[in-house]
Amino acid sequence: MRVLIVEDDPVHAKAVVRVVGPLGHDTIEVGDGEEAVRLLKSQPVDLVVMDWLLPRMSGFEVLYWIRRNLGDAPAVLFLTNKVLDDDIVLALDAGADDYLVKPFRVGELTARVNALLRRVTHDLDWTDRIRVGDYTLNTLSRTVSLRDERIDLTPKEFDLTVFFFSNLGKLLSRKVVSISTWGRELDPASRTLDTHIYRVRQKLVLAPENGLRLSAVYTHGYRLDEVPSRSSRNAVSGRSDTPELTCE
Question: CB 3.0-4.6 Å disulfide test: which of 6, 51, 144, 224 passes with 36?
């Protein structure tokens, strides 16, 4: 397996190499975020062990680039001095697979690297598709369909859709959604995020009849939930799927 170590401190980088190398993995070292992205564009890796505070391009920005351009692979482990709970939650919600605070213990780093690489091995047959209910997202062709009917989305709407579908059932703050989709926190006064979410909800028809509900949670953010569709409820109750006429 190939492990990319992104660390601007040579002492810390060599310390990680001394842990990962003896596990039988190939290691590659780079010293800043831009160099990491250049390498990831040209070479496949299985795991990125990365500091958050990097020159020229932060580790969080590299994570954003990875998840937007490479999908769920490679796995990403943050190894950093940032210790606040908010930072850890932000990184994990944005797509990091694990988070370890410096100074690390050799045994713990070994265990976490092994666990992540085992997960990568198990996921090698991933088909670049996300299926939820009657929806199918293809992250390679960047298309989404509902019951085999393709739905046209703008690039940013597709990025937003992938993020919600990849975090089904999770309450996602506005900050996490905006950083994970736009690569930065949007101005709180801006309506950009709300407008895009409205369009995604309308275009995908995210409603109980299609098995999904996208909800705004006041002061917190948004959550996409899977709910029983009308057809599945009718099947359970034995009713016909033909709608009844009602008078109002």
Answer: 6
pLDDT at 224 over 80: yes
Q: Does residue 169 carry a pLDDT above 70? A: yes
Confidence (pLDDT) at 203 = 95
Q: Domain boundaries in the chain?
A: 2-122, 129-236
Which DSSP string do the residues of the chain spell out, in sequence order? -EEEEE-S-HHHHHHHHHHHGGGT-EEEEESSHHHHHHHHHHS--SEEEE-SS-SSS-HHHHHHHHHHHTTT-SEEEEEES---HHHHHHHHHTT-SEEEESSPPHHHHHHHHHHHHHHHHHTTT--SEEEETTEEEETTTTEEEETTEEE---HHHHHHHHHHHHTTT--EEHHHHHHHHHSSPPPTT--HHHHHHHHHHHHHT-SGGGTEEEEEETTTEEEEEE---HHHHHHHHT--SSPPP---
97 closest CA partner among 81, 112, 80, 82:
112
For residues 183-199, average pLDDT: 85
Which residues, listed in sequence order, are joined to residue 26 by a DSSP beta bridge? 2
For residue 12, the one-letter residue type is H
CATH of 2-122, picked from 3.40.630.30, 3.40.50.2300, 3.40.640.10, 3.30.450.20, is: 3.40.50.2300
Q: CATH assignment of 129-236? A: 1.10.10.10
